Amino acid sequence: MRAKEVPHKAGLFYYFQAPILNAMPRIPLLFSLCLSITICLQAQVLQKTAQDAYMITRMVEKYHVQPRPLNDEMSAAIFNQLLSELDEQRFFFTQEDINKLAAYRYTLDDEILNKRTAFLQLLINLYKQRMLQADTMIDNISKTAFNFSLKEKFTVAEDTAWPANLTAMRTKLYKVLKLFVLGSALDYAVVRNKTPDKKFTDSIEPFLRKKAGIMIKRSIKRIMQSPMGVDYMIGTSYCQALATCYDPHTDYFPPDIKTNFESELGNKQLAFGFALNEDDQGNAQIAKLAPGSPAFKSGGLNEGDKIQSVQWENKEPINVANAQAQEVNQVLSEPGGTKATLTVKKADGTTKQVTLHKEKLNTSDDEDRVRGFVLKGAKTIGYISLPAFYEDWDDDRGLKGCANDVAKEVIKLKKENIEGLVLDLRYNGGGSMQEAIELAGIFIDIGPVGQIKSRTGKAETLKDMNRGTIFDGPLLLLVNGYSASASEMLAGTLQDYNRALIVGSPTYGKATAQDILPMDTTINIDTYNGKANADSYIKLTISRLYRVNGTTAQMSGVKPDIFLPEADGEGSEREANEKFALQPNTIDANKYYKPYPPLPIANLQAVAKKETDTSSYFKAAFEKVNQPKKEKLHDISLFLDDAWQVKKTHIAEAKDIHEPIQEKTSLFTVNNDAYQQRLILADPGLKELNEEWKLNLLTDPYVKIAFLLAGAMIK
Amino acid sequence: MKPQRLTLLFPVLLLISICSSAIGQDLQNPGDYISAISKARGDMEAKYMQYMSAAAHGRRARKVEKLRLEVLDNINQSKYNTIGLPIYKGDNSLRQGSIDYIQFCFRVFNEDYKKIVNMEELAEQSFDEMQAYLLLQEKIEEKLHEASQKLSKTTHDFASKYNVNLIDEKTPLTEKMEVAGNLNRYINSVYLIFFKCNWEDSKLVEAMNAKKVNDVEQARSALLSYANEGLKGLDTLRTFENDGSLSTTCREVLEFYKKAADKDVPKLTDFFLKQEEWEKIKKTFDDKPAGQRKQPDIDAYNKGVKDINDAGKSFNQTNETLNKGRTQALNDWNSAEKKFADTHMPYYHG
Fold first, then answer.
1. Cβ-count burial of B61 within 10 angstroms (0-12 exposed, 13-18 middle, 19+ buried)?
2. Are B227 and B257 in contact (CB under 8 A)?
3. For residue A515, what are the β-bridge partners?
4. Predicted pLDDT at A28
5. What's the rounded Cα separation, in Å, for the pair B164 and B149?
6. Which helix (H) or strand (E) holds B221?
7. Nearest of A229, A223, A220 to residue A42 by alpha carbon
8. Which of A466, A681, A689 to mutate to test the interface with B (most CBs of B within 10 A)?
9. Based on the number of CB atoms within 10 Å of its own CB, is A17 exposed (0-12), middle (13-18) or buried (19 or more)?
10. What's the CA gap between A689 and A79, in Å, rounded?
């Protein structure tokens, strides 16, 4: 099962160099050759895109658990999805462009099935043109100071619609930039405890205007100078939009995106081998070099270096000076980007250029893996955090898989005489289904743990084939709206068996399984080993998952036995909010599973209520649950006085809202097991992170309540 | 260890001894007809007893296998003999009932189980080979019982319909088969106690060889609970004809498994954890350039070396002891079982 989603890549652009042709008439032959190569390459990219899009439909038809018909309705869905991907904020395309593109709104199904490229060609040309124009418009807008005494408004209509024409597009960009500068100026005023009068805004406006302009231009440049070119990026988005319209977890992967997706499931990652953080000014800097990585071996990089620019092979440099870490990471993870020259500023102020080639690196960073602690108070409770259901990609035995890691952690904690155990699955987006099955086996004896059903086959029982358990004591699972897929499967199983108390908020609601397949309709999905090399892949939803009782967590998620609200009250995005999510259904219950005796849920709910009634954190979180939902969008004033009034109102309202505040508990202390203690002694570098973990656990209100509940479960 | 004993369940249930008081071979006479049907099953029971006797008394494997094939031939021959008999005055119930029974016996003896039980349903119910074996055994036993009951009822119904008085008659063969049946039942009940532990121990060894702590620990806990459960079961098990030797050996074997699971295997698991810890310590040390290493780093590394060496030594010693103990336990069991069968199985040469 592949549960994690890769982030979508937004925005594409291609820098077209043909106009130089007229400037160099003496060597027309060479240039015409270059031009023909460019056109030829572009045609190849488009043909490959058309071929891949066609193959997606074939693959879906053959293997998808519930293939949606590719018809006019689907065509419109792909159309909308793609435009939203390319121009989410609707400021690069104009309504005139959309009208031209709309000729294909209901015929993309024919385009795809006949491998035609006319739509793609039109889309790419328009996009390139508009991006270049936007870049120039931003330069021009940024030249003049913004006047906040004008009674201008950025209307909802402007915000949510495509600008009618190029003039309207310029106006929209102007207002977006102005809004950014005004909003930032007001934030500065609040932080510095000043009134944002004209004098104040005038003093800060040039700096903020420049910053805003650079930020948007950087995102354009990231696209313009992307390693594989704009055609390739738009082609990828086109295929991804098509895949996503079948269901939210079907996706299209070029090879490097596939590799990095798999790295979230424990496989090696394609990377340069350095991590970024931010300095006091919020600018990205190198935080850590991974030993043995290209960055480490280059010898040219050090911790604290600030990356000034990134230049992909045969492209122009992208300025990332003073960018945030997230922006730099976005640039560095562009599809197809494997070789880049980085210009860095060293601590002594000198600059240096380093050329790096991405390599497949181990992602055995302990932060991404199982962590265990002993919570000592009135009772001794083990705590294990599992951030993902990663698997062992190098060895079929699964020695480095998360189930084996959890088993080892449980043994270490048992040596510390724990009486109960908390398994924290919050923010665990899933991963390997096999690992989830093996993990369930740690806590239940042999038996069925779930059911899986493909489109054609009958439901198959997923079985824990290992007799015996490793931990028989009271068990509690912490979950929230980000606990998805394999997390939900484990939580559902342990709930159906009455084996664990499920505490937190309802889980995400993804009960489908995916496999990553090469674009090949001849493969046997039952025997495919996942190791074929291909030019492109599809992550395909091949089965639905059901609980042993025949119900599914699809859409609704696993409902906790003890409900605790999330900090923001309403929780995260959920499967149910996804446009193309598969509808839930039920199948027969498995006849052979034998649940343990029921848990005293009512008594435990009373224990939880006592804490949530007195905890300032949960009081505030429950208040948020009951608050009216956010108002709908409204026009935003770009006039300083109005904007300041609105800001003040918001600040006053925020004061009335009690934000959940985390307090340090004295109910228990957080301790390391003997093994971890020895490791920390051998590696003092671990100490800081360890202390951070301990403090987080001490101040985590959900862990506190889990500690109380696990204690109450001990007989 | 894979299950291999299913056919030994067969004999007692094959035993159906119904004789008619009528003498003679007038197939128009219902008593004679019943007798003829019974006789048509010929000497398949005798051949089967011969086979069991040979197997229990240590005859050579080739001889035993030859006898097994002869049993199959005999069952087939019995079927043809019965088919060759006429239908009794338009009433085919007894003849067909006997053919069905013989056919069933052939399938069981030929281990053609898929024709007898719903293997798919069985696979759905079972979560590993051990459970599949136990369930299959249970089902076959149940089906054999049903088949013999069914034939008995058909015969009695036929007799009653035609006013024939049936009496049970014990022959030397049926008496021997009864003893063999009781013996097999007893051995089987002890064997099952042994088998569960032995099977789980094989899983444990498999997991140890794979060095997978999750599997090792789960198998260890299952082995411990089977050993404890088995020891309790042996407490309530009676001796067979005042001979408690098989039960005593089984107890000794289970005591070995119990100690292994409770005391020895945790030492082996600990080594795996120490090994992982050592790998991390070593990586930390190796990642640090030699020039930057300080005395505490070197001390921690040296301590790590000592710990892993000590753990390795303990691992090797424990492993060796366990392996020796396991071999001894299995040898003891095998010879005790063999001796027990040899002692109590009636001799029969046909």
1. exposed
2. yes
3. A540
4. 32
5. 19
6. helix B213-235
7. A229
8. A466
9. exposed
10. 46
Question: Helix, strand or coil for residue A671?
Answer: strand
Instruction: Record the tokens describing residue A250, joined without a space.
Output: 């079907």
Q: Give dist(CA A121, CA A42) in Å, integer.
A: 9
How far away is chain A from the Cα of B105, in angstroms, using its nearest Cα? 30
Contact present, B183 and B341 (Cβ < 8 Å): yes
Alpha-carbon distances, residue A525 vs A5, A52, A452 (angstroms)? 21, 19, 14
Name the pairing type of β-strands A306-312 and A284-289. Answer: unpaired
Contact B55, B7 (CB under 8 A): no
- Nearest C-alpha in A relative to B222: A468
In sequence order, what are the beta bridge partners of A517? A538
| B107, amino acid identity | R
Question: Cβ–Cβ contacts within 10 Å for residue A644, how many?
Answer: 21
**Residue A7: C-alpha distances to residues A175, A249, A252 (Å):** 28, 12, 12
Q: Do A470 and B218 lie within an 8 Å CB cutoff?
A: yes
Helix A601-614 / helix A701-713 crossing angle, nearest 10 deg: 150
Q: B269-291 burial, b if ≥16 CB within 10 A, otherwise e?
A: bbbbbbebbbebbeebbeebeee
Joined tokens for residue A133 = 């124009």
* Residues A180 and A212: beta-carbon distance below 8 Å: yes
pTM: 0.86
Nearest chain A alpha carbon to B226: A468
HSE, side-chain direction, 13 A CA sphere, residue B179: 19
**Residues of A435-445 as b/e, b for ≥16 C-beta within 10 angstroms?**
bbbbbbbbbbb
A464 forms beta bridges with: A447
Cα–Cα dist A206/A208, whole Å: 6
Chain B residues with beta carbon closer than 8 angstroms to that of A408: 213-214, 272-273, 276
* Residue B32: both structure tokens together: 């004679």
Which tokens hold the place of A363? Answer: 């992602």
DSSP E strand boundaries for A531-689:
537-546, 562-563, 636-637, 669-671
pLDDT along chain A (715 residues), means of 10: 29 24 32 46 87 97 95 97 94 96 97 97 96 96 95 94 96 96 92 90 93 89 87 94 97 87 79 87 84 84 90 89 85 86 90 90 69 97 95 85 96 98 95 95 94 89 93 97 95 97 96 94 87 91 96 96 85 86 95 93 97 91 78 88 92 76 91 93 84 94 97 94
In DSSP notation, A645-665 reads HHHHHHHHHHHHS--------
B113 burial type by CB count under 10 A (0-12 exposed, 13-18 middle, 19+ buried): middle
One DSSP character per residue, B242-279 reads TB-HHHHHHHHHHHHHHHIIIIIHHHHHHHHHHHHHHH
A11: left (phi over 0), alpha (psi -120 to 50) or beta: left
| Separation in Å, CA of B275 to nearest CA in chain A | 11
Amino acid B4 reads Q
Half-sphere exposure of B14 (CA within 13 A, CB side): 31
The residue behind tokens 């130089």 is A20
